[in-house]
Amino acid sequence: MAATTQRFYPIGAPGQPWGAAEKAEWHARQRVQRNYAADVLTVIDRMRERFDVRQYGELDYGQDGKYPLFAVRSRDWDDALPVMLVTGGVHGYETSGVHGALQFLDQRAGDYAGKANLLVAPCVSPWGYERIHRWNADAIDPNRSFRENSPAQESAALVQLVAPIRDKAAMHIDLHETTDSDETEFRPALATRDGNPFEPGEIPDGFYLVDDTENPQPAFQQAVIEAVAKVTHIAPADANGEIIGSPVVAEGIIRYPFKPLGLCAGVTNARYTTTTEVYPDSPRATPQQCNDAQVAAVRAAIDYALAHG
Known about the structure:
By secondary structure, this protein is an alpha/beta fold. The protein has helices at 2-8, 20-29, 36-45, 95-107, 126-131, 153-162, 181-193, 218-228, 258-261, 287-308, and strands at residues 51-60, 66-74, 83-88, 117-121, 169-177, 208-212, 242-243, 246-247, 253-256, 272-278. The longest helix is centred in the last third of the chain and has 22 residues, at 287-308.
């Protein structure tokens, strides 16, 4: 297995976790492949007439530059209304998480004026977005770092942003993708970073959701699955009845313990929480279809939370 890991990710020594030198070598390999300001910030800027746009932090990655972090809020925020939180781009390489959140804001967020307070952070990890990577510049996965005293700047900034609505949020949907590069790049890198052997897995073909083991909401998850199924196909279980190594509890639904793992979807105490997983590498899905699936998931999640309190 060690040889397999090295073939995929030849940094460091087999079985030895990375130190500062290996992380520096990994960092030096990363290249900017797209532009956060052009792709994301210009879109957010065009929304200022309709929404409150607020900077909630700034990443400082030295020679790599600084990245302002923005959230979009309902213009007429009303403390009497339920709060709905939408996050995207926690893993910067998961494209439809970012652009799905932006599309929802542009096309459908207005539907909820006077019904709910919306708080949307479309691109939590802009450094990762530009380099199409899962980690941040310090080789840390933000989506294992949503806790107090977080080692990830991205996660710490979002924790601070949502602190005022932590106990007020009714729903939080975190928009993600599962890609073929998880198996060819990111899981091998993770194994190598941590000094573990790489054990190949299987990428599911289709959309699925991650529910919270400690706060399961099966009817809520099912409502989201039903809405997305009208847009794109739902991932089937593998031969072991699993998706990415977790038992399938209902069509297209698995469970993780959000808060213990430091996942973004556990950043509030909302009753209704979920993580979407779009599969952009499927021959049966286009990039626009992936964005549309994220929008359908957000709308279904908000609608269910509004209907069921």
